[in-house]
Amino acid sequence: MDRINVPPAGPMDLPLSLLEMGCSGRFELITHPIPNQPLPPHSTLPHGLPPTSLNLETEVEKRFLQDPAWLPIHDTDFAFQKFLKYIHLRECNVNSLLNCTQSPLHSGLSVVRDPTTGMLLDFTEVPLENTGLSAKNSLSLQRQPGPPSESLRGSNTNYPFLPGGMEELTLDQIKKKSELEEDIDFEKDLLRVPPGLKAGMDFTDKDATVAKPEVNLMSLLSSFDDIINLQPEAEEKEESKGGEEAPKLPRSNSLEDLGIKDAVSSSAPSEKGKDEKSKPKENPEENKKWAIPVNITSPCDDFYKRIPNPAFKWPFELDVFQKQAVLRLEAHDSVFVAAHTSAGKTVVAEYAIALSQKHMTRTIYTSPIKALSNQKFRDFKNTFGDVGLLTGDVQLSPESSCLIMTTEILRSMLYNGSEVIRDLEWVIFDEVHYINDAEVRDSPSCFSSAILFIRGVVWEEVLIMLPDHVSIILLSATVPNALEFSEWIGRIKKRHIYVISTMKRPVPLEHYLYTGNSTKTQKEMFLLVDAAGNFLTKGYYAAVDAKKERTSKHAQSFGTKNTSQNTSASQDRAVWLTLLHFLFQRQQTPVVAFTFSRTRCDENARSLDSMDLTTSIEKAEIHSFFQKSLSRLRGGDRQLPQILLMRDLLKRGIAVHHSGILPILKEVIEMLFSRGLVKVLFATETFAMGVNMPARTVVFDSIRKHDGTGFRNLLPGEYIQMAGRAGRRGLDATGTVIILCKAGVHEMADLHVMMLGKPTILQSQFRLTYTMILNLLRVEALRVTDMMRRSFSESHRDTQAQEKRISQLKQTLSSLPPLDTEGQLSDLMPYYRTVTELRTTTDALQRAILESVNGLKALSMGRVVVVNNKQHLNALGVILQVSNDSVNRTFTALIICEKGNEEGGGKSNDSAAFPHLYNTALFIPEGPCSHTVQKLKLQDISAITVKTLKVIPDRIIDNYNKRQQPRFRHDPPGQAISTATQELLRLAEANPSGIATLDPVNDLQLKSVDVVEGSMRLRVLQESLRDFNCIHSPTFAEQVRVKELDTLLFLVSDQSLSLLPEYHQRIKVLQSLQYVDSSGAVQLKGRVACQISSHELLLTELLFENVLSPLAPEESAALLSCLVFTQNTQVEPHITNTLQEGIDRVLSVAQRIGELQRDCGIPQTAEEFVGQFKFGLTEVVYCWARGMPFAEIALLTDVQEGTVVRCIQRLDEVLKEVRQAARIVGDSVLGSKMERASLAIRRDIVFTASLYTH
């Protein structure tokens, strides 16, 4: 080793010396050299000391790891020497201190064109507004784009873009607006000629009979400019009418549409007409109907004239409902398409994607489950090419024009102000009817149901948060309240939603009962509902007789004990073998057999060991596809028991599909099924949620399922969705649906309700989450109460109508003297409360009656009903016809009314005078009695009376329709109508105070607890009304108006929001945990919680209490598995002491949060909160993260392989969230630990890429 020559010590040197230790090249540092000894390095021997036995590892650890200051990166000498070397070369430049960043440009250039030829004439400088806006201070789309790294997902410090339909203005806008209003006197000082124009607006009064002005191009252009100039960018957002007309103008096809009407109207308004206050007079009527039903009965003949160059062409002719949807998309309108499975709803999504590619904008497609997203990615990728996928663990082509993603990611992008939202034209929500599905999908696991429930909440948030320029496409199975739901979306977004609903099935269904269980009885299949939808009782009784024939003589004599619907495994096997042989002979495969238990799915498939349904060619195809698909797995993973079992089943044409199956296996099964190679598929309900995978036949193993709390019959919506898989379009004339009668034939009433009942209505799943509250609190311009007010759960609030009524009442009450509430009026408040409760109880009871089978049976031809709607108040009517449509059932009825009010145009009943009072008095005309024939909806019928009339419906309807024609308008009504009208009038006059109605309990046999309690409460309330004195007071009406005003003021205020108390409770929790301060400002802990999508409080507390810091990466992953695993297990996990300590700390933190929530008033016990966290997979995840093969970890637990895989996949998303949160806190060590944990679990079969995406 060469000796180092060191220059003599100078004043800058420290008194240090090095002592060479042996020939190994080690040195000792001498910090206190002996006086008068030389400083250069010296050695103990001429050739150094011999090597010592000191441990180099210990030395390195002591020097470098325990004292990082020794690391070379911390050596300041080199940097300081370099600094000293250049310091004397630097010149002083005082001016550099005066430099500052460039301010944004305050003006830009605009072109000047010739108005007739369009030629460029000149450039002019125009001032630019809003130049200081950024993602950190503004909700506006005018703000500057953020950095490219944040363009896709946004940042949690960004503001979201302003949600569409929100009128809230910023402080600056309000200030600016008020200054403008101060400057302008709308009575006198209106300017008439804009700068630069020779002519302007004429505000003088004109006569109504003004001659139609000539159309000339310049006047049209000037009027068009006037219209545009009335639209300042941000200041008048609340003027919804102006905002809605603006985008429609450029899409006009003719000059007449563009400006004539506006030119006429703008040339002759009165001075008041220009005032803002006159605008709402036009608005309410048009704003009331945001949902517009589209008529799909008449053919769309001019489709190709209206769209000569469609953005996308299909190889088949579109159905009418598809054409209507495409027309609406071309006009950039939002649509709600409700149609049966396989009807072709995807056409609408495909056209939207094609349109966005044509317009060079973007489309986002969301679905309720990840598997469906993967399938759609493959389909759309094959069709359009430019398609990307964003899920929790996959990100493919995020720059594409069409992005398929989960709803949570879209919500996160909206809250974080992603730049993708700027280019967004369409958002497609698929399978909307699953939004309110908060139930267990695969008994007994509630794993997927939890996901669906979360989606329902997220989905409503997304709809509210979408900006104004984004159009919405909703695709759903048939739901009864599509109009009501669309009305809600239209109202919150302030735009029309076109509802396109079709009940037509491309392939009609035939429903059978099957009672066979042997070769002898294999043909016992009885038609119960034919292709036209008629319920055949003959088929039902035939099935009952066939089943009876095989019961023993003892059972026939003494009756069967029908306590259990369960059958033994051997009986099940006999039924399945018999049925499948029968279907195979009749060439009715492929078959989907829905079985509502994963264990029974597996058992049924295994029991068919003697059945082989495939040919040798099909076997070869299945084998090669199976081997090719699994070639990406590691050798050990290919030998998993589940894979070997499924390979044997698949070769014989049999398969199983449920959440316990490995994801890659499920995809193999789906692909083989779509090719027609799987002949019999035993599946749970989740298969009905997949993309279009129809079968020839659908079989129901049972019609009862477990919903997490107990067993119940299938709901009509569930049955229709699953039965809809039967019938392949273009291949089958009808689809076959078979219900097995293994233990006995099901009750006729149950079957009727299930097959022909109403599907479940869409219900709001909106609930407050801490993430939502914190995300909205960090943006001052958005309030949580605005979100709550816009939720579907509050859609019943008709604020516009209530505010109109408030102004009327205020006007009326201002002219009245103050009223005395003593004496006779002392019991006014209790009276008002009683009447309010009476109305709500009556409404709830009536709703229950109309939704029951017996209630609908009572509404048959000739039944007298009480009608209440906009036109009629307690008017008697008689039902003439009932529509066949079970979803949107209507009743044609003859109703009595005042002469002149047949069409509702005359003087209507003053129903608005006392809408708050409980009024049973029947309508009796003051003058001559007339009649009208109308189609009533269920909600128009307020009571079903005990009376029926003999009527001749056809004659009444024909006579009424004939007299609607102008030439027969004055003919006298026919005999049948006159008789019915007189009968109704006689009934009304005989019972002026109210007519007897059908009792829900005694007459209609409704025995549910709610109905019985409701009817008892109703009687009590009705009797108590007689005891009040206030109704006899002469000033009663005025005083009631005061109370009504108070109620209305409460209803339009935030205080009436149903979720407001819970909001205050949650805010209290957040303040106690210091996520927000007393003023509502979000603190550091709150910012961290914003990053986390579920269990945000627990995770944030664990982070801030350093629970994860002492743990190894694999232990952290194992501990966090409690957040994603929701099942109970029988196997007790064997875990390390460190992990056990971690579990105890998690449980103590959860207990503390649960108790705090309880103390703040949230109705969830601490035990329930702690009980959500299940540690059954901790050992499995720990061993997996340490590298154990999947075959071995599968033996550690009784949880099925598919569930384990999905848990670990979701755990990876949680680890990414924790990593992001750790970085916000500044804990880089924990961040890198989470990254290592994520890498440790991302391997082998658990994270094998989907077959759909490669």
Automatic annotation (TrEMBL):
Basic and acidic residues bias locations: 238-248, 271-289
Gene field: SKIC2
Chain segments carrying region Disordered: 134-159, 234-292
PROSITE patterns: HELICASE_ATP_BIND_1 (PS51192), HELICASE_CTER (PS51194)
GO term, biological process aspect, one: nuclear-transcribed mRNA catabolic process, 3'-5' exonucleolytic nonsense-mediated decay
GO cellular component: Ski complex
Domain of life: Eukaryota
A Pfam family: Ski2_N
TM spans (from-to): none
Catalytic activity: ATP + H2O = ADP + phosphate + H(+)
Domain Helicase C-terminal: 612-777
Domain called Helicase ATP-binding: residue spans: 326-497
GO MF entries: ATP binding; hydrolase activity; RNA binding; RNA helicase activity
SUPFAM superfamilies xref list: P-loop containing nucleoside triphosphate hydrolases
Alphabetical list of InterPro entries matching this protein: Beta-barrel_MTR4, DEAD/DEAH_box_helicase_dom, Helicase_ATP-bd, Helicase_C-like, P-loop_NTPase, RNA-DNA_Helicase, SKI2-like, Ski2/MTR4_C
Name of the protein in its database record: SKI2 subunit of superkiller complex
